[in-house]
Amino acid sequence: MNDLTAPKAILFDWDNTLVDNWASIAGALNATLAKFDRPKFTEREVRGMVRHSMRNSFPRMFGDRWGEARDIFYANFRADHLAMLKPLSGVSDLLKKLAGMEVILGVVSNKGGEYLRREISHLDWADYFHRAVGAGDAVTDKPEVGPVDLVLKDSGIERSKAVWFIGDAAVDLECGIRAGCTPILRISSDEPAEAHKDWPPAAVVNSSEDILRLVVESRQTI
Known about the structure:
Layout: E1 9-12, E2 19-20, H1 22-35, H2 43-49, H3 54-62, H4 66-80, E3 86-87, H5 91-100, E4 104-112, H6 113-122, E5 131-135, H7 146-152, E6 163-167, H8 170-178, E7 182-186, E8 203-205, H9 208-220
Parallel strand pairs: 1-4, 1-6, 4-5, 6-7, 7-8
Antiparallel strand pairs: 2-3
């Protein structure tokens, strides 16, 4: 039994929380770095470093040429991101069951909104989500709370502990906490535990089955 507030809505991060698209992300980033004569990263290194939106991270990486870098990245990414997209184990069943429980579902991602929604449509998951918000859709990107407000717009649900924010990274926990939601970590080996010390999760899950179990248990405490 847990003492979490039963969710009226669950907001998910996308990459590494519901899907694996890292091969495409790493390939596009390395193609971009090569154009700038920069050393490449392994996929594992990319998994550990890509957390923030492009408009927040590329200016630090590429300076005044970040717009050029963005265009190179997306030219490579759009070529194969759908073909290389893989749902994480159990996610399709999880979304179906949560929708059947009348929990409002949404996505808050730092992937570009256009590409995020293409991927959702490709997996035939669009009907599960009230709204999917990616980088550039709101005035600011995660970890700012603007994307949370946008994804909840017209849902009839306001930010509270009854809104769960589930993600795999500190940026997700920070966003959830700053928004006054319940932050839940889907743990992975890509980010060390100390990364979460300033933004501690209310619960930790290892799988889609764990998420469903938490929801069911939280409803039993009502």
